[in-house]
## 1
Amino acid sequence: MLIIKNLHAEVEEKQILKGINLTVNPGEVHAIMGPNGSGKSSLASVLAGKENYHVTEGEVEFQGKNLLTMNPETRAREGLFLAFQYPIEIPGVSNVNFLKTALGEIRNYRGLPPLDAKEFLRLSREKQKLVEFDAALVNRSLNEGFSGGEKKRNEIFQLAMLEPSLSILDETDSGLDIDALRIVSQGVNKLRSENNAFIIITHYQRLLEYIVPDFVHVLYNGRIVRSGTKELALELEEKGYDWLKEESREKAATL
Amino acid sequence: MTSQQDIPLYDEVVNGFDDWADLISPNETSDLRKTRRQAFEKFRESGFPSIRNEDWKYTNLTRFLKDEYRLGSPAPLALSPALLAAAAIPEFDCYTLVLVNGVWEKKYNTGLPSGIDLLPIAEAKADPALAAWFERSAYGKDRHFTELNTAFFSDGLFIRMKAGSSLDKPLHIIHAFTAGYNLMVQPRHIFVLDRNAELSIVESVVSTAGDARIWVNSFTEIALQTDAKLHHALIQAAAPGVRLVNHTTVRQKKQSLYNNYTFTLPGADLVRNDLQARLEEDHTETHLYGLYLAAGQQLIDNHTLVDHQKPSCFSNELYKGVLLEQSTGVFNGKVYVHQDAQKTNAFQQNNNLVIGKKATIDSKPELEIYADDVKCSHGTTVGQFSEEALFYLRARGIGEAAAKALLINAFALDVTEKIKWSAVEAHINRLISQHIPVTHA
Ligand SMILES: Nc1ncnc2c1ncn2[C@@H]1O[C@H](COP(=O)(O)OP(=O)(O)OP(=O)(O)O)[C@@H](O)[C@H]1O
Ligand SMILES: [Mg+2]
């Protein structure tokens, strides 16, 4: 589904991603962990098409197509979804109107007829239930005045509505209370299928107990310095990142 | 006076006044005839304003004054049903009146209301009992267009609500302009609300698209007596070719309320609004909301004045502008607080979204405060689209054009949501989206 090869990217002339390699197949869940500032959100931004990031080297293939030449809306229409680490507030744009527009454009791109008001409402109700998203929030301005947790839940509600094939969740767990974490995870698990895939960026092993990953990767200093299975997350929880940082420094020194 | 040499309209006006006066004034009171003569002399001295006039600094009329115009109102032209349909506000329960080139065409009325005095200005100006309403404005500060209007107006609408009266529905006044050749029309309107009367007026300005240029020099005087309430919306959606200069003076007496909503849309080449609220007695309330969406080469200029003359008055002003393509916007908001006007609350805000790479806005708040116990504030912002917001929307599959349309509507919302009639709000939102390219809904 997603093949990242030797991806290098910079922002404001600062090299952030320094050769990422990652392959995600349909049906898989990949977790990406790593210390603050290591480039996790940057990787997500590059994949979503944020314009201030410049890819300097490498390639990314998404469902057989070159992802890097597509604009952000095309990536979304092709089935890529990024749940933002810090979802922004857009006063004056109603959540509903926004979702209707987004769904309409995505369906149109895929050659599907637009949903009528009733069908949209039914779908929206169903997905609200899935992530237990408060109906009152649906009618408000996009994220305006939402609590941190409500914003995160809104991201997952949008994910559920748009049914992407590849979802990237950037620290969706931070800011969620214990119950919300469980609800959101259950929602994600229900959305999982053999046709879609998830990349879950997180700092905490806890989320990975709910959404069990097939692979765990550690991103440090713009590179994936270790990959493993879910046991790697447990090891990190215990030992922290120092030993990996040490290792990667040694490796760099011997190069 | 600035040189009027290359302005054919100046010659037309100056040479044409005597004939014009003979034509329109036979049944007028001698006072009005005197008033016209004085106004004419003033205009002859001052001429059309140039950018050397402080009030016209950013609004250069030269390119609009190159054309020749004929004076007056031609024999009534038939209006195309399409034009009237475009001006109509769907699902708006109202009484509709239509003026063609400033002349009330009664055949287009839909259900004339009772409990209101409605009179063509042509009749009102001949009635000695109404003479007081035609005295030369005490506020003839604009020596240019209001004087010209005073010298030449021939028709328009006189509205009077008797003390304590109100209507069951708003009044929708459609000002339609149409001409087969370049024309200058100068309507005069007078709205009087006696003590404790209440009225809602929505005015729409539309025109037929064509080769003819139409210069509209409109002057509206509004008098609100003690405790009167007027809710007044103006939707300016004329087509290219129209040059609209629109002066409105509102005189407010004790505890009266005036709500104004001015919406200016792409179309007319030039729109210059002068909106002046004169708070002549205490405890008045005034809200001025404006939204201008400019496109093409359009120039939209809003000059407002809130004149706090007496204590304990409240005024609030919010104007928002969206400048597309190569358009130009001007906002000048003056708040004058006289020494007498203690306990004044006066707030003003002007926010602009400059979208076109060649679009510009000149925004200038002007506060002159001579009282010490007052609360006044003002603010101006000029910005572009938030890149973050645009990216968020696009990352959800929304194309750039649709994302921008959503953000423009969101920006305008502070103003559009203030309209108290939902049908009018929906109508405005439709007009806005007509002018923003959207791929598909
Ligand atoms: N616009 C920018 N200008 C300059 N530096 C930037 C910019 N955006 C990101 N960076 C830098 O890139 C590096 C990687 O940031 P990124 O947000 O990807 O880290 P992260 O791994 O997601 O961290 P966290 O766990 O704290 O979320 C950081 O050093 C950050 O300061
Ligand atoms: Mg991050």
## 2
Amino acid sequence: MTTTESSEQIYTGAPDLYRKRWEWDAVYWGTHCVDCYPGNCPMRVYVKDGIVWREEQAGTFGTIEPGVPDFNPMGCQKGASWSQSLYGPDRLLYPLKRVGERGEGKWNRVSWDDALSDIADSMIDAIQENGPQTICHEGTPEMATVAPTGKFFSTIGGHGLDLNGSINDFSIGLYETFGKFSPVSSADDWFNSEIVLIWNMNPIFTRIPFYHFIQEARYNGAEVINISPDVNPSHLHADYQVPINGGTDPAFGLSLVQVMMAENIAHWKFLREQTDLGYLVRLDTKRYLRQGDVEGKGREDQMYQWDPASGLKLADRGNLFLRGVEVAMEGVFDVTLADGSTVQVTPACALLRAHLDANFTPEKQQAITGVHPETIRMIARKVAAKKTNIMLGYNASKFYHGDLIERAMALVLAASGNWGRKGTGIRCWAAGMHDGQFIATQKPGPGAANTEIVLSSRDAALAAIKQTDPTMTTEIAVRMLGQLQQKMQGRNLRMGDGESAGSGGTSSPPAFWWYWQAGYDKRWNNKDWGDDSMARTFDEYFEEALSKGWWDGMDRPRPGAEPRVLIECGGNMLRRTRGGKTALLPNLWPKLKMVVTIDFRISQTALYADYVLPAAQHYEKVGFHIPTPHLMNLTFSDKAAEPAGEARNEWDIYNALLEKLAERAAARGLTEYTDTAGSKRRYADLARIYSMDGFLLDEDRLADEQIRDSALAGTLPMGTNLRTLRQKGFVRFIDWGLSPMAVAQASQILPNETHVPFRDHTERGDPFPTYARRAQFYIDHPWFLEAKEELPTHKANPKMGGNYPLGITSGHNRWSIHTMNQANKVILGTHRGEPNVIVNPDDAAARGVKDDDLIRIFNDVSSFTSRAKVAPNVRPGQIISYNGWAGFQYTDWSGENEIEPGMVKWIGFAGGYGHLQHLGTEWQPVPSSRWTRCDFEKATEGER
Amino acid sequence: MSTNGTGTVSTGSGQLAWVFDLNKCIGCQTCSVACKVLWTRESGEEQQWWCSVNTQPGLGTPKGWESMGGGIDVATGKPRAGHQPTREEFGGGWDFNYYEVFYGGTAGKAHLEPQAPRENRWAMNWDEDQGAGEWPNSYYFYLPRICNHCTNPVCVSACPTGALVKQEDGLVLRDEDVCMGDRFCMEACPYKKIYFNYERHVAQQCIGCFPRIEAGVAPACVRQCPGRAVFIGRLSDEDSPVHKLVNEWKVALPMHAEYGTRPNVYYVPPMSPARLKEDMSIDTENPRIPNEYLESLFGPDVHTALGTLKSEMEKVRGGGKSEILSTLIAYHWTELLGPFTQDPAELTPVS
Amino acid sequence: MKIAKISGGASLADPTASAWASVESVTVPLQPVPLDAQPTSYIREAWAGRSYGKTAQASVAAATDGQKLYVRLSWKDDERPNKEFQDAVAAVFPDGGGALGTLGDAEKPVAVWFWENGRSGGNSLTSHGPGVVRKDPGSGLAAAGELAGGSWNVVFGGPLAAARSGRVGVAVWNGSNDERGGLAAVSRDWVSLEQA
Ligand code: SF4
Ligand code: SF4
Ligand code: SF4
């Protein structure tokens, strides 16, 4: 029977041809488990003759909150043509071995056995030379690879780089303010907003599945304001487009706050309770007044407020609520110190107001931002009066002073009381909730009893930490535990690891790797490209950070411990890194004796690898997407078809590699080696440990165990298992679990309501995990004082790349997920099929450039060529190169990332101050690229 | 093989109509990609985008289609001569040098690019996001287009072989066994939404996803639109949003009604952000898309439609309720799908 | 015109085959299918000011090997390339009693052997007027064409039964002038077909 035989064929003369095209044998659930964040679109994958024929959004979400639109039909054009990538021309089908020079593009197809033998030999060489930590990988959010890669490196004791440090989706300013950067509303909560500020985000490109909530909010009465230098696509459905000079957003935000305070429409109670602006600051040192100052002893991080009725008041570190006390927000007070001397103190808010009044009145900000003062006043009044949500992407964080942008944004929300209730907040990203995904692969063995061991040891560790400070919330304890583990790594056991000895690897922020291994030390010390507000050289700060021990245990790989084997599994280091070709290839690659790429598609990095191993694609294995509060559901992707060619899933590949490692080691008479912690690991045991005696190699069994473990951890409803997911495709989470980013939501999950983070802060007064225990707008770390950044302020973009007239910006494009789908012919047919750089007609004319001409974009760092797209949506002086083109789409395989020097703001190396301490994906130095200086000229066709 | 496990669905009669809400469309091309992956990925169909999305103002697809003629002279009722869009004017459908780049030993030299002459190169969405005007008042919006399944389908009447049939419920379908590839339809269609298959030598166009309609499943462009911007329904069904938006509230308008074919795809016209004055202050009185431009697309009624939308928006912002805006919100996604709410995955596959 | 009888497996299906040199051919004048006979108002409107069917004449030859009827049609081409439309030709038989000048009409069709440059084989059609055609499935019609020295030579090989009516006509479409459907030049008169 065909689809249509039992349907009524009502159309006469309509060709049966098309009825036959719409036929299938089987349907599976699927989604695209890459770093498509938030992604998670539940699709139905239709299979015909054992081949994935097509996919279509499921459209089966129910209503969560009555009166709020549902999530259907989540998806995008990439997802709707994923099947065309699955069997596309960049799909890897067989193991490939490089012949000829690296990057020469000459390959031999080899057997799995040959490939693994050669790789295993290199690994043994590396271990013999300098230990397993010289075998490295860079983290990747390619979700399907995270657990298998993590487990592999933990098993051998290898080294990993923090992915968020590389991609820099770290909202550093939010982190500085809140002690966490991951407040994420569920996307349906956007509907509850009354004012939507699209600010350093382009959701029309980047939030295709969720954008509708913004327009629906507008139909529901909200006003949408798009703030951007260019008239980007997200202006389209806004009420107001606010053109702002590139990177001047802090001045804009601070001016909004200036107006709210000056017009006394600021939410003072909110500011008093939720923020540190009521804390007293010593006028002599500009530092907080601390318990030690007054009492001669006590906590270093215990600060004071001023109660107008009774004077000095110890700030409550355990709860934000002031219970009626209107602590002073202005005024100067005398305080007698323990040594008998007297100092003058003032609330941080008073310092802030003086700073704002002096520098950021609407008129003064206009000179910086170009925004009309009346626009500032209009927006400030709206925001102060209405539930406001800032749509922040990962754009602000990529400005050199991106932290200042985000601190200003956070201050706008604080002054208007806009977090912790529906329709408010700011967004970044968060993952978590599917705790079972990691518990199942790290517990001592299969089964619920082993899960209980992990869960109870986790609970015990948290209880122990909480005992050290009764004011500590679980959220804070979770972070402290994580930070502790980060410091202890390589020296001690990691909790929850299955093996009692010799387990766990090391990890570090990539900044150290770049500095010591990839030649970035020179770039970061280049004064011409750097921050002219630095009082000392970059290296002086760097040395101080190291000597103070702020990065102990994480400052690697150091010189002398050079990486030897690089395994990129799902990652694409050469395209991702600012300077993949200009810095990594000349400096890092020569150190690497073996570069392996495991992927389902040819990537830029694969093209410079020694071996390329074909992995199963998402429709060919059982997996899950990155669980996100944006959706609050665990989404499931099933194995709909056998892996194409000789592709294998990652668990299987790593296991085979470890088996081969044991075999080759035995042949060389080697039985064991010593890891970073000094423990012995036996080659012969590795595969068994890795696969938990084969348990992890059964895809269905593993997925089932992961789901059940999440249920045991309390994040999924009891009784949820693989069968549930196979039936429904997704299940809504009921609790956060214990991963830091999820706990950071600080809000209860309610079954019939949208999710808004920070309700625990606003409704219960739970403290923030900052040094100050409140949203912290005054950071008295010595470096911040030295930088004059103790308060949110504005600083001009440094001249990254040299003194050139244009600024280049970027952002995720509409057409690909990073480079994924860049080779998908269907998608290539929705645009010009090759990279372009958008330039203003005036800038083009001044350089004799017409639309689609080849241009060369250059600065001190390097140059690249691209087609010009001449359009008035970009302002004069700005050029835009949307991110995600593969290097191999450019004439000489160099893209925009090659002219970006990858400067990191030195202040990111600060530490030793409460929340300014590393935890995976969080506090660390991150590279910037927005508004890199450059110029362009017409290039000759055929120019390389 | 699969079959409709839930029984048969009669589409009933009454003209089917689409409404695209341009205030919700984000130009994501999911509709066009969904359509392409479903219907036109065979050899000979590379260039075809039965559903396409363009940036307006722009030349669109095929290049300059709005000045290619065709349609019906409203005054005389006579068809007007039209230009048959050429392969070049459609553009796209390229091959790429994948093998050379990945495996050809030419690394760093050859790069992945369309294998097509540079001169006069064009594609379905070539002028994406270019728009018009001058920064900071540059403006643009997205316009998805499919065959309009016109009430007065000049493609049907132009065809000498009778291959095209206007069905009872208004879909315009071609019997490809009858089609001789004469392409008079392509000339006559003023919307230039017919493609030619140079391999099979037949013309092809949007089939209204009729096999899905027969099974009670909404067309791909409707069901797969993540912007929730597309409605389908019967104009004669007074309860359907399509009827209300088009006939009752008149906020959805045909495009280029002057082409005379009485299209059945309607558009809610775009409200655009306020313009900026010389001094960069906001000019709340004037939207950045010039009204005359919208009038050139949607006719003089566009002013009333925009006026209605504006006053409804104001009503809601003042705390009132608006049935029009609630309809456009479509709290439940299925409200967009008209009578075609069957989940295709629930159609039982039978081997 | 006589249908030449050629035996011994000569390759009549090949338009350039030497066997055709010995076959008698007749040159017939062509004229445009009238505009007012065009079947749709669109075509009549769109082509009102455009000329078509200007191919002035064509030659016809016929032969058989006893199994099939081979008809060879030749005409001079202007050789202007057109990316969209191709040169085409038809041998027309008055099977349904239809008029040649309009390629049949609603009641009385004609039978058409149709060949178009660039497409393999031929199409056997029933024509109820200019461009008003239906494909006859499974007709077993073969066709091949060759452009040489500025002239097209096209050979059809079809059922011998087609010769029963004893008459054949010619229609030519000049692709470079966008001619297709009923926009053709057609022979003024039938050419007689006599069994050898
Ligand atoms: S690629 Fe991402 S956004 Fe698109 S359908 Fe898949 S998961 Fe959704
Ligand atoms: S899928 Fe919807 S939102 Fe996207 S381009 Fe098409 S109509 Fe617009
Ligand atoms: S849009 Fe064109 S092809 Fe579609 S029905 Fe109308 S005239 Fe015919």
